[in-house]
């Protein structure tokens, strides 16, 4: 362009900088910056934002911060870039402080900070800012409503979700497919399946594939198999082609609802060499602890010339982690970077820490964190702390907790994990110290919840739950079942009750009988035929005692029990679990 004597303008330079940002070409971008300065270009806000965004995307935060502070004209795009940069690097406090510094805020800035806080695990702070946005008088747009609905889904606050739905209707905003899909997803994740179906049925007659995949994905997230089957039936009835996109959604749904056989059946029916489709099947095997099969499928796909993407590697690293395939996982991580040129993200780093951690290779974790410069990633430290719990290593757990709590003080999970480790070792004074620290910092633990779908109705339980209409029948059966299990060798481990350390040991043992997954299991047994498998979903990791309980129950009753916890599926059959007690 310059050889032709044509002088670039601000728009040309902005486009070049955008390309440098996309390709992370720091050296070339700096050269463009130097050319701009040498040729006396007058910066307008568009060009300054393009340069600012380039430095942020290339992770040259020193230059980015200097440029931000030196900019005289800042618009909403400028503030969004800087706030987003702080959020992406885990500097939540700085992001919020910067947001507070800004004067007049438009809707896009509100959306950025609320969405960023939510993505970083600060749902309550995000909700507080959402309320502030209302008080500020800033009108919601379609993006705001979608973010708010995702936030509601994470908080499981159905009443708030209904109010936001009402606000959508009153706002006069066009409820497009994306926003309607967000409503469906919110109702599904809050357990209001009937309302989700109503929203789905009110959609236009010509339901597009994205709407179908949205409700299928919602069924997958909540683990409601029967509703998922109904939607699948609708797909067949209206004659939608089972393409790669829809096929991968159905595979994911059946796998996450505990039906791996139907997931495999859909995979065979599609018969496409498509990376999204094959990735879904790899991840499905991983989720169910079938690590060897996941690796075999991954290797076969590469031999057929299919190029894996970053999500594919998340799936195969998960498979290696769950199956204890440490060397294979390390090889795939190197392959991802060195052969396919894929830059590792948070999920990849977390899977690698989990891979080392499950194998008890803590020295490798420390080295891995140092080599990759990922000390700021909370998910990495949480995974490390979970491994400390698995191996009951208190000294390492205390060190990891210190690092984790430096970058995250309001999330209950680190405190609970550390408390659990102390409780396993019966160090009750330290347990109480952790609890007092949580109280002083205003940290609240999310209650453990389990749910089961019986005859198209979702039944949810929490610990010591007495709210179910059949509570007397459920509790009576559970008492009887535990008595029979003890006769064949089961014993409750009262050390594993961490919810209320003030209670006496005997009361702790009694509380073990009322863990949410045990209540859901008891209800499933009395509500289904003897040979019908029970599928239970759980929002946290399954307790060690409950895992033991499920094994003995499957042996005593000759009944398959399938439990999905926050990490994976556990298939209990004939007294054994598919995880091989490695979870």
UniProtKB/TrEMBL annotation:
Keywords: Repeat. One of its GO terms (molecular function) is zinc ion binding. It comes from the Eukaryota. Residues 489-583 form the DYW domain. PPR repeats lie at residues 75-109, 176-206, 274-308. The keyword Repeat applies. Transmembrane segments: none annotated. PROSITE patterns: PPR (PS51375). GO terms for biological process: RNA modification. NCBIfam families: PPR. Belongs to the PPR family. PCMP-H subfamily. PANTHER family: PENTATRICOPEPTIDE REPEAT-CONTAINING PROTEIN. This is DYW domain-containing protein. It comes from Gossypium mustelinum.
């Amino acid at each position: 362009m310059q050889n032709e004597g044509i002088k670039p303008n601000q728009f040309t330079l902005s486009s070049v900088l955008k390309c440098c940002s996309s390709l992370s070409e720091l050296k070339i971008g700096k050269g463009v910056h130097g050319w701009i300065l040498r040729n006396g270009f007058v910066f307008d806000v568009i060009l300054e934002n393009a340069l600012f965004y380039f430095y942020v995307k290339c992770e040259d935060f020193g230059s980015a911060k200097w440029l931000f502070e030196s900019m005289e004209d800042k618009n909403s795009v400028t503030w969004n870039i800087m706030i987003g940069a702080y959020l992406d690097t885990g500097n939540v406090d700085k992001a919020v402080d910067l947001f507070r510094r800004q004067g007049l805020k438009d809707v896009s800035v509100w959306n950025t900070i609320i969405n960023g806080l939510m993505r970083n695990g600060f749902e309550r702070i995000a909700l507080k800012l959402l309320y502030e946005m209302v008080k500020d008088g800033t009108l919601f747009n379609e993006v705001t409503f979608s973010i708010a609905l995702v936030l509601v889904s994470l908080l499981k606050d159905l009443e708030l979700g209904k109010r936001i739905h009402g606000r959508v209707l009153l706002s006069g905003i066009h409820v497009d497919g994306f926003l309607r899909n967000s409503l469906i997803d919110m109702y599904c994740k809050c357990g209001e399946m009937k309302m989700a179906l109503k929203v789905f049925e009110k959609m236009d007659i010509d339901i597009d594939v994205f709407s179908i995949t949205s409700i299928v994905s919602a069924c997958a997230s909540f683990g409601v198999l029967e509703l998922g089957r109904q939607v699948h039936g609708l797909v067949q009835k209206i004659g939608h082609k089972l393409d790669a996109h829809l096929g991968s959604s159905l595979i994911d749904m059946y796998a996450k609802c505990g039906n791996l056989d139907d997931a495999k059946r859909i995979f065979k029916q599609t018969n496409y060499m498509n990376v999204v489709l094959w990735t879904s099947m790899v991840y499905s095997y991983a989720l169910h602890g079938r690590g060897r099969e996941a690796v075999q499928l991954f290797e076969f796909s590469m031999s057929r010339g299919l190029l894996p993407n970053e999500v594919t590697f998340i799936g195969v690293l998960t498979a290696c982690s769950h199956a204890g395939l440490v060397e294979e996982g390390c090889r795939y991580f190197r392959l991802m970077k060195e052969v396919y040129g894929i830059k590792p993200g948070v999920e990849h780093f977390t899977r690698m820490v989990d891979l080392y951690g499950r194998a008890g290779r803590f020295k490798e974790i420390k080295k891995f964190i140092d080599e990759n410069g990922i000390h700021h990633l909370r998910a990495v430290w949480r995974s490390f702390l979970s491994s400390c719990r698995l191996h009951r290593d208190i000294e390492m757990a205390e060190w990891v907790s210190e690092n984790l709590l430096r970058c995250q003080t309001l999330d209950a999970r680190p405190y609970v994990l550390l408390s659990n480790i102390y409780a396993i070792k019966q160090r009750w004074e330290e347990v109480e110290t952790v609890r007092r620290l949580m109280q002083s910092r205003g940290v609240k633990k999310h209650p453990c919840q389990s749910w089961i779908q019986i005859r198209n109705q979702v039944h949810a339980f929490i610990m010591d739950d007495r709210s179910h209409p059949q509570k007397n029948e459920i509790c009576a059966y559970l008492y009887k079942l535990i008595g029979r299990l003890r006769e064949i060798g089961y014993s409750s481990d009262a050390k594993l009750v961490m919810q209320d350390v003030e209670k006496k040991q005997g009361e702790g043992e009694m509380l073990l009988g009322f863990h949410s997954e045990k209540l859901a299991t008891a209800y499933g047994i009395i509500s289904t035929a003897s040979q019908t498998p029970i599928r239970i979903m759980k929002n946290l990791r399954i307790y060690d005692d409950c895992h033991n309980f499920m094994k003995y129950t499957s042996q005593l009753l000759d009944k398959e029990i399938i439990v999905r916890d926050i990490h994976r599926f556990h298939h209990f059959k004939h007294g054994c679990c598919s995880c091989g007690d490695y979870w």
